[in-house]
Amino acid sequence: xxxxxYAMKNFIHTPPHIPVNAYKKLGFKxxxxxxxxxxxxxxxxxTGKLRNTLSDIRYFNIKTMKAxxxx
Length: 71
Prior knowledge:
By secondary structure, the chain is mainly alpha-helical.
């Protein structure tokens, strides 16, 4: 699992359009680390808590909005 987390961390960056100090100015204080979030996601996939994530509309905002006729 540690190898997967390390590999995933290499792809996670602060969005380029938001300066890092903007988070501080807005008062944003993370309560969890990215590493913890990745560990939780890996566990959820491995234990079957997340299923059909590439086909279930619950995981796609636009598809869900269209399904409920939200405009």
